[in-house]
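Fig. S4 source data, part A: sequence.
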Amino acid sequence: MDSSVGLYENNMLTGDLRNQIDRIWDAFWSGGISNPLEVIEQITYLLFLKRLDDIHTLEELKATRLKRPLERRVFPNGKDSKGRPYDDFRWSRFKNFAPGEMFIVVAEHVFPFLRTLGGDDSTYAHHMKDARFTIPTPALLAKVVDLLDHVPMEDRDTKGDLYEYMLGKIASAGQNGQFRTPRHIIRLMVEMTAPTPRDVMCDPASGTCGFVVAVGEYLREHHPEIFRDAKLREHFHHGLFHGFDFDNTMLRIGSMNMLLHGVENPDIRYRDSLAQDHAGEEEKYTLVLANPPFAGSLDYENCAKDLQQIVKTKKTELLFLALFIRLLKPGGRAAVIVPDGVLFGSSNAHKTLRKILVEDQKLDAVISLPSGVFKPYAGVSTAILVFTRTNSGGTDHVWFYDCAADGWSLDDKRTPLLSEDKLGVVPTTALSADEHARNNLPDILARWQQRDAKERKRPRTAQSFCVPKVDIAAQGYDLSLNQYKQVVHQEIEHFAPKEILANLAKLEVEIQQGMKELEGMLG
């Protein structure tokens, strides 16, 4: 899945709805809220309030139908401490108030109420406990409430696309874009690992939950049987999805992203993945997908001791890699993004970790990504590592792919290079050779599926090829693609055979003259 605004393969948002969202966005900016994360956060709170009202309404309908009292009451009877009826806190009520009154109700009554909902067991309620209301004017609040009220919230695709479109604005604004992995890169990693209904997946640096959402969408598309089987459905809503972050804003946004994509109670929680020991988390997951933060280092004192036992380092990218291995059950698989330095770094920690992946676990693939993939907010060269935790080796060949193009320009603008039907990992229209040169992703997926067959016979001059483990060990476990890629020397083709022979003869004469001069000097 990709983060480019409005470029998700199946985006069902109408132009009218996008324009409405754009107008809301402009209103926030002109109203003095210029941080896109804060805009999303305020919209998230309002969406949550709308959901609470929907839940309460469903409970009322059920009670009426069964002629019983309400089993679950979201909004209590009576009034709050300031004398306002709790019924006024419901979306269906306050949306009809005049802007001035709506503003007072939401700011002075609804938000304090929202912060007390921690007793509700849901992930969402837990992340609302420090909710702050920062919409500055009654007019802006009324405008946002009106927009959200007209979004068909019963349609999972529409509300999911709505939220993704807004999240894309974080990236396009250039602020906090580091929280967004391009959706088409996420989609590639999900397709390669092919999640199953019984998987237990984790992203230990979950941000806006792009990977977690993408796994859910993949399962809906490929495994519709989930929703016909009570056990699988229960697992999907309450046991399959796990995401950790240590930014509370991200946790709120990520958990709302999951909710709007139809997952009832994912485990999206506060956890400093590198600082906390992993008792209870070790060997818990069958699938890890992640793009962790790269730059930076931790003090040894602040780093989880169980990670230091695997690799002694302060570098966050190496610590995250050690963490991924630790979290996986034997047989569990991972697809993770790492900076290129992880592939060839010469420190003991770099070499130790690569050796662990190749010798103790099963390293499946190294996919080199073009350096502009994370622009405009990072120009670092990266790669996708795909591996399986075995604790007993198993690496036979490692599959390498040199991805040169992902369908978008590799400058700061990241504009699409192909029509929408030819973008992404699974385009709806087949690509020609020329179009493949602009979007390698479908080829990556197709060749990945042949990694144990036809790909074994590909020459190392090709875009993808396999390297036996023995060759990797001989190179000191260097995993950089250029270490193994062979280049066809095009310049030879510019000379006719006679010219080559003449050049060799000339070289031989020069060598003989050099030998004579050397003999003369030696006397």
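Fig. S4 source data, part B ends here. The first helix runs from residue 15 to 30.
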